[in-house]
Amino acid sequence: MTTSKPLLSVVSPVYEEEAVLPQFHRVLSEVLDGLADEYDAEIILVDDGSRDGTLPLLRRLAQDDPRVRYCSFSRNFGHQAAITAGLERARGDVIVTLDSDLQHPPSLIPALLEKWKDGADVVVTLREDHASAGVVKRLSSRLFFHLMRLLSEREVRDAASDYQLLSRKALDGLLRLGETHRYLRGMVNWLGFPTAAVSFRVAPREVGASKFTFGRLSGFAVDALLSFSKIPLRLPFFLGVAVILVGLGYGVWGLAQTVLTHGPWEPGWIVLLATVHVIGGSILCSVSLVGEYVGRIYEQVKGRPLYLLKESSYDPDAEAMRRGRDQASAA
Ligand code: UDP
Ligand code: MG
After folding, report:
1. Is residue 153 part of a domain?
2. Is 16 left (phi over 0), alpha (psi -120 to 50) or beta?
3. Which of 100, 137, 248, 298 is most buried, by CB atoms within 10 Å?
4. Which residue, among 36, 57, 33, 32, has the nearest Cα to 47 in the 3D structure?
């Protein structure tokens, strides 16, 4: 093994994929063999608590192929946790994450590496066509990205997938984000490093079934929306203002009627409506105010770094970046 070649880490979550895993390993190995002149490689497979024959298969793969390393969860913790565990264990100079069900074609890896060589720290992949997915999945995915774009404070790309490349620098940054509810695509986007994109066609799942039921997907979408947007916290405020305005409208109307007709203060129900609206609206506004504080506590608890460096000529910075990397690789 020459030391001059960069190390490529391929990270893949595996959950009950015994049917497709050998084929995945074969296809991926062919791609890595093709890159062997330029890159050393390691394959990190994370078993997300499978109850089928996945784990014995992983043991066998690790025995037969020195590039393969694996770890196995005590139970199913979800695929974002599995990718995270793999990323924490990756030692590479450049890291690629992809699904182990062959829906993310390994043949795309050389194209991702080209973009990395051109200077991108992050290369995302965009799903060009996923007609193979069901109608409900496609519609909900479109709705999700629409909402995300509406609510997120950062630009969101449509149809981004968890098939992506990270430079060592980007991965070190990502590993400093210790939040529990993880939406990795958003977190990678938050890093802000120079990003390139490659499109690909999602292959239909040939073996096994998708592990994402509608319920699981919606939970994931809620995680994504709530961890990247403070807008939901502010909604009660706008609603509250609208309700107060309605209340004031009733008040003005009642007053105008009294003045114009010079009559007695008859329409007591208008006063009642105005009062109810103003009180209700004020409560909504107060809820939003509490929400602002909760939002701040949430930001603080997430403990994301205040900034990430792209480069620096200042020595202690270089030292800190190196330390961050050592910590990340020790994890
Ligand atoms: N996966 C996982 N844990 C889970 C569910 C899925 O590690 O709880 C893995 C799975 O083995 C696959 C990837 O995550 O490699 C994507 O899962 P799946 O193909 O079921 O999702 P879909 O492609 O239908 O969105
Ligand atoms: Mg899949």
Report:
1. yes
2. left
3. 100
4. 57
Q: How far is CA 276 from the centre of its chain?
A: 42
- For residue 260 the two structure tokens come to 């114009």
Q: Check whether residue 174 and residue 272 sit in a common domain.
A: no
Number of compact structural domains in the chain: 2
What token pair was written down for 44? 């990190």
CA dihedral of 298, 49, 218, 154, whole degrees rounded to 10: 50
Pocket of ligand 1 (CB under 6 A): 13-15, 17, 48, 76, 78-79, 82, 99-101, 103, 210-212
Co-location of 196 and 295 in the same domain = no
More confident residue, 318 or 244: 244
Average pLDDT of the residues in 311-316: 77
Q: Please, which residues have CB less than 5 A from ligand 2, an ion?
A: 101, 103
CA of 102 to the centre of ligand 2 (A): 7
Q: Are residues 322 and 174 in the same domain?
A: yes
Residue 325 lies in a domain: yes
pTM of the full predicted structure? Answer: 0.84
Q: What is the CATH number of the domain that holds 51?
A: 3.90.550.10
User: In the predicted model, is pLDDT for residue 216 greater than 60?
Assistant: yes
Question: Is there a domain that residue 225 lies in?
Answer: no
pLDDT of residue 229: 79
Q: What angle do CA 227, 232, 233 make, to 5 degrees?
A: 95
pLDDT digits (tens, 9 = 90+) for 277-302: 999 999 999 999 999 999 899 889 98
Q: Are 99 and 163 in contact (CB under 8 A)?
A: yes
Residue with tokens 């093709």: 34
Q: Which token pair is 38?
A: 């330029």
Going 263 to 269 to 274 to 278, the CA torsion angle's sign is positive
For ligand 1, atom 24: residue with the closest CA: 210
Domain span holding position 52: 7-214+305-330
Q: For a ligand 1 pocket test, name from 99, 125, 141, 213 the mutation site with the most ligand atoms within 8 angstroms of its C-beta.
A: 99
Whether 261 and 312 map to the same domain: the answer is no
Ligand 1 centre from 135 Cα, in Å?
19
Establish if 203 belongs to a structural domain: yes
